[in-house]
């Protein structure tokens, strides 16, 4: 039996509304990346989206509301990205591979969504975004701590926390350089971030990563 046409109408309107919101958020991301949040205007966002300012105001009262909605969606995606990137590591995984996989995933997210960096590190971002970014930062540090505890089970908690903050700080500092370059230079800066993190963690982790499982075989593993 077909659906009630009266119920279909609201669903179609809702779908059109979602498409329009997605269109406006995409336009806002482009404008925020180009001009920064402070200099951006709703008129510029509407122009980028190819709609009238009146159409924009049907969905968002101001640019702050647009930035908050965009930030909420990006941070949801970011949480999924770092959840996968900081999953438990198999002890047989070489340190270079573990660090490289995590860095690659984070770099890919930020390169695919450059507005994330523009919003989260701008001088005049809305308060709610700043608060959510701080919460995201704290959660990210906690996930790095959990990963480090699996590699450094005997380390004092304060040392692990400090190491987690240093790892995140190194990555965030390097990310700005990565996003400022394209092509081969971007790849080169990404490799530098990995090298710094690997050389920092290697003396701490020792041979915990990349070591073969103990099967009773006394054969020495060579590099």
Automatic annotation (TrEMBL):
<keyword id="KW-0805">Transcription regulation</keyword>
<dbReference type="InterPro" id="IPR001647">
    <property type="entry name" value="HTH_TetR"/>
</dbReference>
<dbReference type="InterPro" id="IPR041674">
    <property type="entry name" value="TetR_C_22"/>
</dbReference>
<keyword id="KW-0804">Transcription</keyword>
<feature type="DNA-binding region" description="H-T-H motif">
    <location>
        <begin position="41"/>
        <end position="60"/>
    </location>
</feature>
<dbReference type="Pfam" id="PF17928">
    <property type="entry name" value="TetR_C_22"/>
</dbReference>
<protein>
    <submittedName>
        <fullName>TetR family transcriptional regulator</fullName>
    </submittedName>
</protein>
<dbReference type="GO" id="GO:0003700">
    <property type="term" value="F:DNA-binding transcription factor activity"/>
</dbReference>
<dbReference type="InterPro" id="IPR050109">
    <property type="entry name" value="HTH-type_TetR-like_transc_reg"/>
</dbReference>
<dbReference type="Pfam" id="PF00440">
    <property type="entry name" value="TetR_N"/>
</dbReference>
<dbReference type="GO" id="GO:0000976">
    <property type="term" value="F:transcription cis-regulatory region binding"/>
</dbReference>
<dbReference type="InterPro" id="IPR023772">
    <property type="entry name" value="DNA-bd_HTH_TetR-type_CS"/>
</dbReference>
<dbReference type="InterPro" id="IPR009057">
    <property type="entry name" value="Homeodomain-like_sf"/>
</dbReference>
<feature type="domain" description="HTH tetR-type">
    <location>
        <begin position="18"/>
        <end position="78"/>
    </location>
</feature>
<keyword id="KW-0238">DNA-binding</keyword>
């Amino acid at each position: 039996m077909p659906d009630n046409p009266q119920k279909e109408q609201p669903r179609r309107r809702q779908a059109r509304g979602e498409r329009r919101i997605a269109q406006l958020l995409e336009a806002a991301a482009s404008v925020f990346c180009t001009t920064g949040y402070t200099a951006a205007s709703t008129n510029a966002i509407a122009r980028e989206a190819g709609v009238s300012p009146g159409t924009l105001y049907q969905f968002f009262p101001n640019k702050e509301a647009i930035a908050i909605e965009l930030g909420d969606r990006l941070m949801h995606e970011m949480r999924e990205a770092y959840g996968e990137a900081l999953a438990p590591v198999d002890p047989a995984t070489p340190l270079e591979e573990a660090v490289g996989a995590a860095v690659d995933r984070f770099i890919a997210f930020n390169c695919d969504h450059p507005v994330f960096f523009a919003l989260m590190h701008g001088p005049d971002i809305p308060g709610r975004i700043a608060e959510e970014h701080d919460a995201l930062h704290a959660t990210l540090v906690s996930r790095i701590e959990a990963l480090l505890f699996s590699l450094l089970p005997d380390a004092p908690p304060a040392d692990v926390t400090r190491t987690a903050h240093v790892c995140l700080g190194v990555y965030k500092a390097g990310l700005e350089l990565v996003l400022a370059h394209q092509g081969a230079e971007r790849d080169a800066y990404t490799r530098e971030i990995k090298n710094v993190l690997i050389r920092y963690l290697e003396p701490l982790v020792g041979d915990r990563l990349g070591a073969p499982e103990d099967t009773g075989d006394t054969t020495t593993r060579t590099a």
